[in-house]
Design goal:
Oligomer: single chain
Distance between the termini: 41 Å
Helix content: under 10%
Strand content: over 45%
Amino acid sequence: QVQLVESGGGLVQAGGSLRLSCAALGITSSISGMGWHRQAPGKQRELAASITSGSITNYADSVKGRFTISRDAAKNTVYLQMNSLKHEKTADYYCKVTREFVNYWGQGTQVTVSS
């Protein structure tokens, strides 16, 4: 039984910052990767940032240099620090954890960027 608990979403002014967190419950071992996917209204869900068990990070070109992904392995938690948020980044963010080639998804947390 796996549950991903996300937090940190909300309303922020353009140019502001938010920090998302996702705690993976019910997973005891063998997590190969954790990450965040973004889904804007009317768009497909796309990778924003990911981090492997070996701490290798990957970022979408649109967020590179502004977003930072990190993890706390002891807590099975992944974070996404989002700086310089733009209006076009208003979207739902979904946490994903991969274990033994199986993907687990959070319910999503909404990030709304105001003008």
